[in-house]
C-alpha cells in the first residue's frame, strides 16, 4: 500500500487534517517563510523543527489565523483545515476547532477553575462545566495537584502546572487540532516529560502540530518531522521547508545535507 | 605587556574602593537633591492650603453647617456654597456620563481595532497625536468652542448640560489617552490566549482587556474629573452665573403654577460651580467675602479634588494587587 516513491505517499496517514499549498507569509514586504507545501495528517503528531528565525512559529500561527492579530501580515497560497480554506472560515470558528498552546504559559489571571470554564462559557457550552473542567484537569494530570484550590489564582501555579493548565484549557474545547509552539521551552525536564507523555496520549483524539528545538523530544513524540531551514536570496532571509519525513526516516536517513547537519548539530 | 598592566591596575583593590566611594557620593548628592525638590514642592502646597485654612477658619467652626447649606447672600456671614456644591456635583455627573463612555470607547477602538481590521495603525497614531495635543490646549479655548457650538448653534443656553458637555470635551483626551495606554500595557500573550480559545473580539475586550486595564482606566477617569471639577475659565466663557440662589428643579417636584418638572429639566437649569463661586467672592471688596468665604470655599474645593485623587490612587493599588502577571 505505502510505496516509498513520493514523500506524500510515504507520509500517507489516517487522513489529511491540514493542507498547505505554496504558503508564503510576509511581514510588510519581507517574506518570513516561503512556498511551503505539505499535508499534516490526522491523529498524529507532526513536529516542526529548525533553527530560530526560520518561520516555524509564523507558519504555525497561520493555521489558526493567529497572525491576524499582527498588523501588516500577508499570506499567499492556500491553507486548508479539515478541507476548508481558513480565509473563508470565521476566525472564531476556526480557533474553536484549532486550539493553541503557547511557548510561555499564559493562564488568564483568574482562578484555575475559571481558566478552563471561561473557554467553555465564551463558546456557549451547554453541558456540565464543572464536570468538563475536572475531566480535562485529570487528563493533563493536574487534578490531584490542584483539586483543593480550584478557586485560587492560576498564576500561583508553577510554570509546568501553568502550561498543563493551558493545555487543559485548549483541550476542554475538544478541538480537532492542537497547535503547540515550543510548549516545553520554559519548563524543567520533569514537567517536560509529563507533557510529552500527555501529547503521546492525545493523538488518539487530536491532531497535534508541535514546534520544538529539542530533538530528543521530537524523536520521542513525533510521527513526522518537518525540517525548516533559513535561506538567503536577494538580500532577504526567509525560511523554507527543507525535508518532511516520518520520524524514523528523518532521524535515521535524512535526505538533505542540512537536516543531517542539524540533527548532528553541525553548522552547515 | 601594557594590557597586563592595565588589568593589574583595574584589579587594584584601593582604586576600586576609591571608585566605589566616588560613585556612592554621587548617589548621596542625587538623593539630597531629589528630597530637596520634593520637600520644596510639598512645602509650597502645605503653605498654600494652610493659608487658605487659616483665612477660612471663621467659617469652619459652629457656622460650618450654615456655610455649606446656605445660598449666596449679600451678607458674608449668611452666604453659603450650597448652590455651588450641588452645581459642581451635577455638572461633573453630566461630564462623567458623556466623557467616560466616549473616552473608553475611543481608547478601545484606537488600541484594539485600529490596524486589526479597523482604520490603519498610522491613522490611529496620527489621531492619537492630535488627541494628546488637545489635552494641552488651554481650557478657555474649550469655553470659546462651547460658546460657539453649544450655546450659539445648539441653543442650549447657560445651563448644566452646556457646562457638562464643555467639561466633557476638556477631559476626553485625558480619558482616551490613559485608556489606550492601560490597554497597551496588557501583555500580548494574554490577548492571544483569549483569542486562541475562540473568544470573539468583544468577549476578549469585555472579559479580559477591560478588567485587566480597569485600574489604569479608572485612574485616568478620576484624574480627568478632578481636573474638570476645578475648572472655572471655560464655564465663565459660556456665561455661568456667579450669583444664583435657587437649586435646579428636582425631577417630578411640583412646578410653580401647576404641573411637575420632567426628569431631565434640571439639565437645562442655570448653575454655578465651586471654582466660579470662589472666583466671584475673591473679586468682592469686602474681606468677609474675599478672604474668609473665598478661603473657606477654596479649602472645600481642594478637599474635593484631593479626595478624588486619593480615590484614584486607592483604585490603582487595589487593581494592581488583584491582577498580576
What would the principal axes of the Cα set say about the shape of chain A?
A: globular
- Major sheet summary line of chain A: 6 strands, mixed
Q: If classified by CATH, what would the architecture of chain A be? A: 3-Layer(aba) Sandwich
Strand percentage of chain B: under 5%
- The CATH superfamily of chain A appears as P-loop containing nucleotide triphosphate hydrolases
Give the helix level of chain A as a range of percent: 25-40%
Quaternary structure state of the chains depicted: heterodimer
Question: What would your notes on this structure say?
Answer:
The complex is a heterodimer of chains A (268) and B (325). Chain A has helices at 7-10, 56-63, 91-97, 112-122, 129-139, 143-146, 159-171, 189-202, 215-221, 247-252, 257-263, and strands at residues 16-27, 30-41, 45-50, 73-81, 84-85, 98-101, 177-181, 207-211, 224-233, 236-246. With 268 residues, chain A is an alpha/beta fold. Chain A has one domain: Rossmann fold (3-Layer(aba) Sandwich). The longest helix of chain A is centred in the C-terminal third of the chain and has 14 residues, at 189-202. The radius of gyration of chain A is 19 Å and the shape is globular. The two termini of chain A are 36 Å apart. Residues 1-13 of chain A have low confidence and may be disordered. By secondary structure, chain B is an all-alpha fold. Chain B folds into two domains: 2-59; 64-322, MetI-like fold (Orthogonal Bundle). Helices cover 72% and strands 0% of the residues of chain B. Chain B has helices at 2-10, 13-56, 64-69, 82-113, 121-135, 139-153, 160-184, 188-196, 201-229, 233-238, 274-282, 287-322. Chain A binds chain B through residues 64, 66, 68-69, 71, 91-93, 95-96, 99-100, 102, 104, 106-109, 118-119, 122-123, 153, 155, 166, 169-170, 173, and chain B through 115-117, 120-121, 187-200, 203, 207-208, 212, 323-325.
Amino acid at each position: 500500500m505505502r510505496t516509498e516513491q513520493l514523500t506524500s505517499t510515504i507520509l500517507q496517514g489516517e487522513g489529511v487534517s491540514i493542507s498547505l499549498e505554496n504558503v508564503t507569509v510576509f511581514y510588510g514586504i519581507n517574506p518570513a517563510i516561503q512556498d511551503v507545501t505539505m499535508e499534516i495528517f490526522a491523529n498524529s503528531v507532526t513536529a516542526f523543527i529548525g533553527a530560530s528565525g526560520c518561520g516555524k512559529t509564523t507558519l504555525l500561527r497561520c493555521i489558526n489565523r493567529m497572525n491576524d492579530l499582527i498588523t501588516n501580515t500577508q499570506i499567499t497560497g492556500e491553507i486548508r483545515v479539515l478541507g476548508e480554506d481558513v480565509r473563508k472560515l470565521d476566525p472564531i470558528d476556526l480557533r474553536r476547532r484549532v486550539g493553541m498552546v503557547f511557548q510561555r504559559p499564559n493562564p488568564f489571571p483568574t482562578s484555575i477553575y475559571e481558566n478552563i470554564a471561561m473557554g467553555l462559557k465564551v463558546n456557549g457550552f451547554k453541558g456540565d462545566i464543572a464536570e468538563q473542567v475536572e475531566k480535562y484537569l485529570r487528563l493533563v494530570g493536574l487534578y490531584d495537584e490542584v483539586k483543593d484550590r480550584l478557586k485560587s489564582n492560576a498564576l500561583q501555579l508553577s510554570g509546568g502546572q501553568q502550561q498543563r493548565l493551558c493545555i487543559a484549557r485548549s483541550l476542554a474545547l475538544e478541538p480537532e487540532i492542537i497547535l503547540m509552539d515550543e510548549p516545553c521551552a520554559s519548563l524543567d525536564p520533569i514537567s517536560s516529560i509529563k507533557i510529552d507523555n500527555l501529547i503521546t496520549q492525545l493523538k488518539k483524539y487530536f491532531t497535534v502540530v508541535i514546534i520544538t528545538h529539542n530533538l530528543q523530544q521530537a524523536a520521542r513524540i513525533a510521527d513526522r518531522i518537518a525540517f525548516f531551514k533559513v535561506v538567503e536570496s536577494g538580500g532577504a532571509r526567509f525560511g523554507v521547508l527543507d525535508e518532511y519525513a516520518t520520524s524514523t526516516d528523518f532521524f535515521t536517513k535524512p535526505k538533505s545535507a542540512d537536516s543531517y547537519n542539524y540533527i548532528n548539530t553541525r553548522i552547515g | 605587556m601594557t594590557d597586563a598592566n592595565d588589568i593589574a591596575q583595574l584589579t587594584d583593590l584601593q582604586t576600586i574602593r576609591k571608585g566605589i566611594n566616588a560613585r556612592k557620593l554621587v548617589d548621596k548628592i542625587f538623593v539630597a537633591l531629589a528630597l530637596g525638590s520634593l520637600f520644596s514642592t510639598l512645602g509650597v502646597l502645605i503653605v498654600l492650603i494652610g493659608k487658605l485654612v487659616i483665612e477660612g477658619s471663621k467659617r469652619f467652626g459652629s457656622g460650618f453647617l450654615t456655610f455649606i447649606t446656605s445660598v449666596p447672600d449679600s451678607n458674608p456671614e449668611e452666604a453659603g456654597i450650597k448652590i455651588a456644591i450641588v452645581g459642581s456635583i451635577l455638572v461633573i455627573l453630566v461630564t462623567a456620563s458623556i466623557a467616560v463612555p466616549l473616552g473608553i470607547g475611543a481608547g478601545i477602538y484606537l488600541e484594539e481595532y485600529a490596524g486589526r481590521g479597523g482604520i490603519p495603525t498610522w491613522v490611529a497614531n496620527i489621531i492619537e497625536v492630535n488627541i494628546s495635543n488637545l489635552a494641552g490646549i488651554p481650557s478657555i479655548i474649550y469655553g470659546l468652542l462651547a460658546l460657539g457650538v453649544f450655546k450659539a448653534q445648539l441653543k442650549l443656553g447657560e445651563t448644566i448640560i452646556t457646562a457638562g458637555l464643555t467639561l466633557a470635551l476638556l477631559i476626553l483626551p485625558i480619558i482616551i489617552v490613559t485608556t489606550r495606554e492601560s490597554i497597551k500595557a496588557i501583555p500580548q500573550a494574554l490577548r492571544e490566549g483569549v483569542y486562541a480559545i475562540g473568544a470573539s473580539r468583544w468577549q476578549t475586550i469585555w472579559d479580559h482587556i477591560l478588567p485587566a486595564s480597569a485600574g489604569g482606566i479608572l485612574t485616568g477617569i478620576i484624574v480627568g474629573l478632578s481636573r474638570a471639577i476645578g475648572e472655572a475659565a471655560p464655564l465663565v466663557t459660556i456665561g455661568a452665573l456667579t450669583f444664583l440662589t435657587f437649586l435646579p428643579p428636582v425631577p417630578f417636584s411640583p412646578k410653580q403654577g401647576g404641573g411637575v418638572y420632567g426628569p431631565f429639566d434640571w439639565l437645562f437649569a442655570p448653575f454655578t460651580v465651586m471654582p466660579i463661586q470662589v472666583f466671584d467672592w475673591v473679586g468682592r471688596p469686602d474681606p468677609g467675602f474675599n478672604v474668609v468665604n473665598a478661603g473657606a470655599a477654596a479649602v472645600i474645593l481642594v478637599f474635593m479634588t484631593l479626595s478624588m485623587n486619593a480615590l484614584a490612587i486607592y483604585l490603582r493599588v487595589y487593581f494592581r494587587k488583584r491582577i498580576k502577571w
